[in-house]
Amino acid sequence: MNMSLGIIRVVGMVVFMYLSWRNLREDYKEKELISYAWLSILAFMVGGRLVSVLGWGGENGGWQDWLSFWAKPGFSYIGGYLAMVLVGWWSCRKNSWKTWAFFEDNLVAVSIMFLLFLLDEFVRSGFDINAAMAVVAVFDGLAIGVWSKGRYRSFVWYRSGKKGFAFWTGNLVTWLTMLGFSFLVVENTINRICYLTLGLISAVGLVILGDVLTISRKKK
Hints:
- The protein has nine helices and no strands.
- By secondary structure, it is mostly helical.
- The chain has two domains: 110 residues, no CATH class; 93 residues, no CATH class.
- α7 packs antiparallel against α8.
- The longest helix is centred in the first third of the chain and has 27 residues.
- The protein is globular.
């Protein structure tokens, strides 16, 4: 059963690479996109595993156990996601891509990969409620992000009209949904702090990108 479910994760990675190439190839060079996709997957796996092990602390042997997948299983999706964001930012700097526009353009590919991984996690865990809530949160963020892509330039308060709105909004919805869900189940305080912090960062990023505060000062 675990072997068959593991295929879902492989499919998730393949879908991410395919969508990154298919959706972005008209605006970005294919060779650079392929390099970004491979590096993102590697960062996701290493970052998620490393953060998970570091979160265990000395009780389980420390950071050197991060390769012991069978003896000491565990994975941090927050760590994996942040590692992917870091790779995306580095790739934008290296290839002279517009950072927030790139993140918005690749929102669907990243979100679908996470949905497939989390769906696998949900089934592997015996239909754990925490995994189910994570699936719902990521889906909500993706749905709102996709819905807003063709509309945000008409929002009066979002005066800059810059690309990146869908990325920041999708993140904001996902993290705040996770924060809200965390109070319905047993959740550790560190995770709640992470959800709140990432949600606030998303809100601030959205405000800065949209020049909302600048517009407000001009109206006074």
